[in-house]
Amino acid sequence: LDWIVSEKDAFKMASEENTVMFVVDACDLTYLPQIRETDPDALAAFDGFSARRRDQAKAQAAFETLYDQRVAAAERFGRRMACGARLTACITAGGHVNVTAPFTGAKSWEDVKAVSCGSAHVLALHGDGSVSADGNDVQGCCFVSHWKNVTDVLAGKYHSLGLTEDGHVLFAGWNLHGQGNVEIWENIILLRGTDTFTVGMDRQGKLTVAGERLPFDPEKLQGDAWRDLVDISVSAHHIAGLRRDGRVVFLGDICCGDPAALQAEIGRWRGVRAIASGNGYVVGLCDGGHVVAAG
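Predicted structure:
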């Protein structure tokens, strides 16, 4: 199961085989016009959904409706889609990339397996493990053409990260907050991050963090509750971890509300298979396809 989280949390996409599910942040539909321009039918289920309505029940109902209907957007968008502050990118069925920005280099890319967007640049992972970049090369964030044997890419606001086959992490761009201090990391199998920090998960399900502006105490990630993880999700305000037993752990804050109450609510979740986060909420996809949300 693969989750793509927008930089401004405008929407999230999860794909499993031919199933695509969107969770739209009801208070920030910044990218909705761009998505509809790319594919007018992709988010038809959200017609009439108020951009000002903060109704968790309706958001969850919309999510479950899209899940049940098995929206055909997977076939239209290809295998992966991502968005940044001012652009979106999606892979076509032929392995090319469509970008909603005036980039010329991206048009010639082939055999693309994954994409990730920063504020004004896009990364593409090719089938041979090489990486391409196009866009605004702030502080060298697009200097990735020499990367080899990469299995995943992650673009921040003005930086780029690559995960290699042997578990090391590559970095290019602006290391303003120390989020690029990853050169000694080993055995990493999963990368997540924001503009100010990076989190890596190793093969034992343990976490390593780089960055100076953390919304949580990194020492708490070494506790027993944060062991045996299978997935992590981060926002500018918090980190959530999915345990192998289907429970979810949480550290940090949200935009509003009581962090302790939120942590307790999330702690009661069971049978969770996938998680995603926005600055104001955490969402879990559970056994049977139902959704839980907090925030």
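Summary: Helices lie at 32-38, 56-69, 73-77, 259-267.
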